[in-house]
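Q: Please design a sequence for this.
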């Protein structure tokens, strides 16, 4: 696996898009290097010229939704349309994609923690190809969040180039999250598929010493028994990320609502990013960090 197909701007319903790239081609014709696109049903249009797909070839592609987002990607883009909405898929070198994930997920901190993040991101890509129709992955947290790579994130990808986590000789769909309450969780504890992710919960010294704590209220009618990542995501979609930041909490009934008091941020499975930064600051290298959070896995090509 040397390239990945990434659906970008995946959280937007795109009706208008500006594209800047060399060798833009639509309906067999070359377009200006900067072109404005719209969707008409299942057709991509640049002015009066319409076709099934716009493609670029070589170099860097810049995509812009006016007033919302402006981003450049190293790679080629294919833009299609469906029901009046545009969809952009970038074919990107795997290592460029890894660098973009590190820039988004761990932009600061000791280099060894960024190296650990790079291996985790690459492992996820290696194990999970084909998660979307027409693309391997999206650029949201449904797959892996990514942004514009930095010098530090490119260095992390380069220093760990080709390295992935393996379990029983298969790539691991490595999971990670922002912070825990002092101990990570097994996948089945939050009702995620455990058979494909058979790693033990481990202690996290950084978060154990000084956990991130939170408190919120949720409608009791929405609350199902026990922690669940599906429930956390449902509450996030309906009320915002801070309604249930993690799956580590206690619940207390108060009339028709529940008061939640919790620790940590994220699903709690796999590598705690805050803990990884703490281990790196204490002098651990990226191999030791990954071995701690992914017991039983090994680093291989």
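A: Design:
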């Amino acid at each position: 696996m040397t390239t990945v197909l990434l659906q970008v701007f995946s959280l937007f319903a795109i009706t208008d898009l500006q594209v800047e790239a060399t060798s833009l081609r639509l309906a067999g014709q070359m377009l200006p290097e900067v072109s404005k696109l719209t969707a008409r049903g299942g057709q991509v249009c640049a002015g009066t010229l319409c076709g099934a797909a716009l493609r670029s070839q070589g170099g860097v592609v810049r995509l812009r939704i006016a007033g919302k987002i402006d981003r450049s990607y190293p790679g080629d883009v294919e833009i299609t349309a469906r029901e009046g909405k545009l969809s952009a898929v970038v074919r990107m070198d795997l290592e460029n994609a890894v660098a973009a994930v590190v820039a988004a997920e761990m932009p600061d901190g000791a280099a060894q923690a960024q190296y650990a993040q790079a291996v985790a991101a690459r492992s996820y890509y290696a194990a999970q190809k084909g998660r979307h129709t027409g693309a391997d992955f999206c650029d949201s947290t449904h797959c892996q969040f990514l942004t514009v790579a930095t010098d530090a994130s490119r260095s992390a990808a380069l220093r760990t180039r080709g390295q992935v986590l393996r379990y029983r000789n298969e790539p691991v769909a490595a999971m990670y999250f922002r912070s825990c309450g002092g101990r990570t969780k097994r996948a089945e504890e939050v009702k995620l598929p455990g058979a494909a992710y058979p790693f033990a919960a481990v202690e996290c010294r950084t978060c154990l010493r000084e956990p991130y704590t939170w408190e919120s209220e949720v409608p009791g009618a929405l609350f199902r028994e026990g922690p669940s990542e599906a429930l956390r995501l449902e509450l996030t979609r309906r009320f915002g990320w801070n309604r249930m930041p993690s799956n580590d909490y206690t619940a207390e009934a108060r009339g028709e609502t529940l008061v939640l008091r919790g620790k940590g941020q994220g699903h709690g499975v796999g590598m705690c990013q805050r803990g990884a930064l703490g281990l790196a600051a204490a002098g651990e290298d990226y191999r030791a960090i990954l071995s701690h959070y992914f017991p039983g896995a090994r680093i291989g090509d």
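Q: Thanks. Anything notable?
A: Residues 111-127 form the longest helix (17 residues). The first strand starts at residue 3 and ends at 8.
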